Model the fold of this input.
Amino acid sequence: MNDKKHILIVEDEEFIASLYKMNLEQKGVEVTTVYNGQQAIDTLKTITPDLMLLDLLMPEVDGFEVLERLKKNKQKISFPIIILTNLSQQIDKKKCEKMGAEDYIVKSELGTEELWSKLSPYLKK
Amino acid sequence: MPLIVLLIPIYNWMEHDLTQATLARRETIASLSATVVQERLDHLVDVGRSLAGRIQFRTFIAEGKWGNAVKILESVPSDFPVIERVFLADTDGTLMADTPELPGVRGKNFADRDWYRGIDRTKEPYVSEVYKRSAEPRYNVIAIAIPIYENAQVPQRALGILVLQVKLESIMQWIRDIEVGEAGFVYIVDQRGHLVAHPRFPVQDDIIDFSSVPVVQNALRGQRGISVVYNPIEKEKRLAAYEPVKRYGWGVIVTQPEDLAFLQRNSNMQRVMGIYIFALLISTLFALRIVSATMKLRVAKERADRETANAHKFQQAVSASLSATVITDSETKIHYINPACEKLYGLTLDEVKGKEASAVFIPSDQQSTFEPRFIEKIIKGEVFDTDELVSLRKDGSRFNTHVTIYPVKEKEQVLFFVAIIEDITEKKRVDQAKSDFVSLASHQLRTPITALRLAIETLLKGIVGSVSEPQRDILTRAQRYAIHLAETVSALLYVSRVEAGTVRLEEDAVKLDVLLKEIEDEHRTEFEIQKQEVVIDCPSNLSIHTDRKLLKEIITNLMSNAIKYTSAQGRVSIVLSQEKDKIRIDVTDTGIGIPSHLQNQIFTKFFRADNAQKKKTDGTGLGLYLVASLTRILKGTISFTSEENKGTTFTLWLPLSV
Done:
């Protein structure tokens, strides 16, 4: 049995996604990376992660739409969704909170260690 | 018995209403009379101005041809029967010519006359006090003196004075027909309290001094009102309403014996009371209500007439305004819209006069957002300010406006509303563009920075292979730059948002110990690197109603500074406490301090103290500027004490609720 925690990263910048993946794997979690919203939705049909890191601005299906579709499908989401974006306007944050995001992190403002201290409480449950 | 008991309050109530009606009527008459006098005098001044403004007339005067000049005016006394005589004086007050001509006055100096002293003082047209004319028969007159200028547009040195003389009998005509009721009358006093017109005194022949009469004194002081005065000669109490003729310093008094003034009230009282005593309780009440309502209606009508007169004066001022302005009556029916408003909405005054204002200017589907807020404010009698209101043009197109509605009140009662409308379409477009730019810049700058930060960190941690000491050194420095860049971008975006005014307050109950823990966690790495001792002292039950994000930004900035400018092994502390209705936050460090000669500059944008620049190169110069701006937004205050090489304490005071 694999009791490793599983994080799904949705991030269109592949380089950034791979760096997050490396750093988080270092902490002993399993990481899946996908590069746009459509892939995220497809992936969620087959796997249920312990946490999803969701970027907002992405080509085709963006993060807002992912939130909206998940909400509309009334899929029971058993895992926390944390927004990881470079949009920092309060209005975006409020919008995401309304659509069910648990937390909102501005990418450029946090190093990997600070990011980990934010994420780890969500994984302990 | 119950009938009698009930009668007492009814009696008092009715007496009060009827008394009010009686008093209001006298006040209205006084106000009306003062307006009549003022307008008549205005008219005479206008006549004088236009006579003195004729080009040929001025040319004659300039050439000293007084005789020719006065010829032009020959027909004035017959054209304007009120004007008894016209004469011309030079600037020293010497009479040079007159019509109709009287013997023995030419060449006489009148510099001691009130009309001369008045015009000498004001250089403006002047209405004189009552005086005895010098030619025989010596009856009393007033004079309207008009300065004659070489160029009426550019009054410089006066060439002479045109004087219109008016007999007091003519002034009496103005007020004779005003109905005051039995034994009631109106009289006029000049600026010294001398009678100008009085139906019971021979004012034409004697100068009669009324300046010691209290109501006259009140009117001359510019006050209006009503009093009961005792006339010792006629041994009666009189009701006297007084009103100033403001522009000319005169006064108007309306007076009637008190018993007669209240005669109608008293007879009303007796009659109605008679009915009450014999009537059934129900019908008694019913009759009373009708009487009261009628009286109230009368008062209301008189008031409404006065309101209309007021509104008229007001609208003249408004018509020239470049802001779209609407005046409505107290029931929000349109009374007037100015040309700017006609243009903005593509309407004309004639089309909308008398219509309900909100129905004209606001689309029907927007009414529900407007009405309740408006009514709520108006009930409180406050100024109503819409943030943003969708407006409707005549052609059906819509646009965004900002509307401010002022109730204009008299004695707590709204007379009319004035609404000033601002088209904010352009302002909204600019705001949107600003906000779009900030959002775009935010993303485009941050993405590469994120990549840089993550890449360097990943290398430093040895995740992709071990790093040699010289490589580690380079990467550590590069990391510092990347973090600095990230902080600068965040601060710049924040500052631009604050300056653009797009930072909106989002109030929430904030548990301060939770917030502080969060901030501490985010700075843990920095503390560890610096080996600094950190003390956070926050009572667990402390909370504040404010914008969480802005407060966090303030504390984070103060904390970052404390860490940055304190050497390793130093101490940083944050102490929170509540004092009355304020939260106090002290951020103290044992760092380099702020040199005393620079202390007054630290909240300036891009300012960095020279010792700070030496210690660390990565400050943005925006942190404290941002702290100060955000503190202001949260309605707090910030101060600090600092000593170089000892440390600094910043003290932040925030209201418990924004």
